[in-house]
Amino acid sequence: MPVDGISASELDDLFGSVANELRIAILRELWDQYDEPLSFTELQSRVGVRDSGQFNYHLSVLVPEFVRKTERGYVLTHTGRQTIGAAVSGHFSTEDIEVDSVPAGECMFCGEELTARYEGGDVVVACAACENLITKMPVPPVTVANTPREDLPRVFGRHVLTLAHRLSRGFCKLCHGRVDSTLTVLSDEESVAYRSALDVKFECRACGDRTHLNAGAVVMDHPAVTSFLFDSGIDPREMYPWELLPLLDPETTITSEDPLELELTVRIDDGALKLTLDESANVVAYERQ
């Protein structure tokens, strides 16, 4: 069955390209060279294959998806680096990683303690008291494996913040393709945000992945927002992103339906910041009060 235009046989061919001990050895030798190309003869010698025909066959299977031929020799492509980089890290499977729930701040719904856990490749932050899911985002196994248990909530928070920034800047959290963002407030989309008016859907043009974020998280790295938070004594890097309640629960007003415009009013102490978002959740106007 085709998956977004890619047949099962094509996927099998792609993944099967690296399912070979000799090809993995080729990738590993090129990885060890960083960006320095290796000639055919040098690469063959390092891998330790005497039969040039056999070596040429296995190398050709890796070109051009995983290995690129240049005038100076062979180097890894971006896909090749990602593939072998995940392997040499020693942690690209979640099966041997277990993380018990750890305290992760205060629930924005009920004020009780949140917990964070690592489950099937995702960080899950939830509240046992009110049974609300706060966030669920993918985190690479290597990040978890190399982090002391007591530091996991902080690392999880920063990783979630990084993914939110990546999406808000237009890149897929999985394949790094371009994403389209949409306010769902006037649509039939099921909201997963704190309030339906704050729901923003991201859909990748390349892989089709869908992610929903709170509009406050989407605008978090806008200069008007970061300066307002900083002047209010708040550094998002030093706290869990899900605890930024003034930003995640602002006043909302639909100021226009066609075209759709949503106004957010973020209040902290005696100050306020008004943001106007278009239908793609881009900030088109702002005013500090």
From TrEMBL:
<dbReference type="InterPro" id="IPR036390">
    <property type="entry name" value="WH_DNA-bd_sf"/>
</dbReference>
<feature type="domain" description="DUF7351">
    <location>
        <begin position="105"/>
        <end position="283"/>
    </location>
</feature>
<dbReference type="InterPro" id="IPR055775">
    <property type="entry name" value="DUF7351"/>
</dbReference>
<dbReference type="Pfam" id="PF24042">
    <property type="entry name" value="DUF7351"/>
</dbReference>
<dbReference type="InterPro" id="IPR036388">
    <property type="entry name" value="WH-like_DNA-bd_sf"/>
</dbReference>
<feature type="domain" description="DUF7347">
    <location>
        <begin position="12"/>
        <end position="86"/>
    </location>
</feature>
<dbReference type="InterPro" id="IPR055771">
    <property type="entry name" value="DUF7347"/>
</dbReference>
<dbReference type="Pfam" id="PF24038">
    <property type="entry name" value="DUF7347"/>
</dbReference>
<protein>
    <submittedName>
        <fullName>Helix-turn-helix domain-containing protein</fullName>
    </submittedName>
</protein>
